[in-house]
Amino acid sequence: RFMERARTEMLRTLGFSLDALERDEGVVFAVRRAALDYVAPARFNDLLDVLTRIHRQSPLRTFFTQEVRCERGLLCRGDIEVVSLSADSFRPTPIPKAVRMAFSHISAQ
Q: pTM (2 decimals)?
């Protein structure tokens, strides 16, 4: 859930909301694949940071690399594939151009 929220916050930081993308563009996003490596457990009251990077993207999919960390170090590492779907049919549909451009901009940094 921490990784999902971090991806949502990344979109929000770029000026997009999931609600508006569904309403205005007819697009929703779903995790197609997740490969996780659990390195260490989080503990009660740990302050967690989630690092989210865009590894690559295609017209339909975005591939994220994410890490969950705390002051003790790395807790979890994940490679997440997210697909863009039509909100009506739940069939794959292209990622909106503005989102792809914003993702391209931050993945180039």
A: 0.88
